[in-house]
Amino acid sequence: MLRLVLHSIRNLLCLPLLPIWAIARWLSRPKGRWVVIRLKPRLVEARQPLPWLRRLLDAGSLRRTSSLAAVRRLADYAIRDSRVEGVAFVLPPLQAGWSVCVGLREQILRLRDEGKRTTVLLPRGGGHRELYVASAAEHIYLAPQATITLLGLSAESHYVKPLLDRIGVEVEPFARKEYKTAAERVSRDSMSEYQREQLQALIDGHTDALLDALSQRIGTTPEQVRTLFEVGVFRGQGAIDARLADGLAYEDELPDKLGVSKKQKVIEGDRYLDFKKAKLFRPLRRRPYIAVVAIKGAISESGAPTGRRASVVAALRHARRDRRALGVLLWVDSPGGSAEASDLIHREVVRVKEKKPVVAYFGEVAASGGYYVAAHANAIVAQPLGITGSIGVVSARLMASQLLDRVGIRTEVLRTGPHADIFSPHRPLTGDERALMNRELDAFYDSFVALVADGRGRPVEEIEPLARGRVWLAADAHRHGLVDELGGMDVALDRLRESIDAPPRLRESLRPMVVASYRLEPPPPAAQLGLDGSVFEGLRDLAILLGEGPAVLYHVISIPRIR
User: Is residue 309 within 8 Å of residue 338, measured between CB atoms?
Assistant: First the structure.
């Protein structure tokens, strides 16, 4: 009621200004024929709402971030604007995953399909991701002293078991099943065949997508494009000769390449989007919307707010109770985490589904616990180069008796049961205790597979061969029925709108709104220390496995970054 009154007063005060606002808007309208989108290095799917204090503290980071959702909206306006002839993208080296790059490439292709000219400028050159995106445009320009690096994709894993052996620490993994390799880097000194198989499949999938994109641009076969990996680095005329670029240009020379005169100028993308979104009057009532519940990072009882069980559950309950939220988009970008926390979030998703439709959208990774929480959604949408699956469970036990002896620590234990100190690092497990651990993991694995089978509406016998802890590229998961549709967040939103019981005009007008319960908390120790690579990844894996309890739905800590 207070909102209605305040907005009514504001609109009444603005009413006399309507003629002035209309004239000013007409005079300030963008007059160029080309819109230039200058992307920031950090590209994300969508920005999430932050408390004012967090926005103030993170102002510098926000200025270095571009949103794919904003690019989609700008593309929508440009497609409908007959005065816009084309859209140019200034593409820096991207700090983004492959799924977001697929989404950006899709927007360039959509602009081309709608009759708009497209150009990409690489002012600082680029690598695989930048070239994959840029190849969708009609023309690519490269700065004269910049280089294009096309070496082929790779991934490396560091195994810390020899280090642990040296200091007298042993890790005993318990995994269901053979592809659940999350503890491998701390329990083995080399890569297992199962890990090698699934990791090679991921690299091959990304490589095929890159080669297909480049072959379409160059007009040759993927096999012929692969020979460019042997050259590796292309500069200036070499990039043009290889047909990886069409010309050389500095950033201030871009208007000349676009054929824009000094009088016409180009339209800056931010200004164009702000102009299109500007409104004089505010709506009097809150409109119906699509609630977006984001689950990002490790799913746990503590840690980052978007991965915290309590925050996610609170957001889902809010979306379920709010009558204006006509549907829920579950935005999952998580490698999993605590089995108990994942189960509680899944329960809330099922409760929401009883009242309104739920569609899950998978970002860069939605696997193990990240897949668990979304298994009962009405539909699952993912980008083809995303990572999903890993239907399995893993645990690990630390044994450090040698280390304790070396440093002169003696342990005395008082217990009321034979297994009371089962998780203590001072002694090895007995045969009965090892059987106890295995029974627990078997039970959870069976329930996980049954839950996925029920959510997908398929027999357990069909799901179990696709489970076994196996990590899938989303394109392969779609072929096996673990994902319903391939596409970006816009595809997921369209699918959700189709399932909402409302008049067509209302469904089309529904806009997404991120709802979440945020708490300002420090990042986990590994993130504070910057331990995001090298040998420290293995030690971080060990800390995660030991910290999340006896059953952990994790996968991505065992999958290295594909570069």
Answer: yes
Angstrom distance (rounded) from CA 244 to CA 234: 9
Q: How far apart are CA 107 and CA 85, in angstroms?
A: 16
Residue pair 208/226 in contact (Cβ under 8 Å)? The answer is no
d(CA 244, CA 247): 9
**Residues 333 and 103 sit within 8 Å (Cβ to Cβ):** no
DSSP 280-294: SSPPSSPPPEEEEEE
Q: In sequence order, what are the residues at sequence separation of 6 or more whose Cβ sits closer than 8 angstroms to the Cβ of residue 334?
A: 295, 296, 297, 298, 299, 307, 365, 366, 369, 370, 373
Per-residue confidence (pLDDT) for residue 533, from 0 to 100: 40
The residue among 203 and 401 whose pLDDT is bigger is 203
Q: Is the pLDDT of residue 453 over 60?
A: yes
> What is the model's pLDDT at position 513?
87
Domain of residue 350, residue span: 289-558
User: Quick one: tokens of 551?
Assistant: 């059953």
Tokens read off for 399: 């044994």
Nearest by Cα to 163 from 173, 152, 155, 171: 171
- DSSP characters over 505-537: HHHHH--EEE-------PPPHHHHHT--STTHH
Asked if 273 and 402 sit in the same domain, the reply is no
| For residues 512-533, average pLDDT | 47
191 is a domain residue: no
Q: What pLDDT, on the 0 to 100 scale, is given for residue 239?
A: 92
pLDDT in tens, 538-547: 555 555 555 5
Global confidence as pTM: 0.85
**What is the SS3 assignment for 314?**
helix
Of 257, 277, 297, the residue that ends a domain is: 277
Strands 552-554 and 336-338: antiparallel
Q: 277, 312, 340 — which closes off a domain?
A: 277
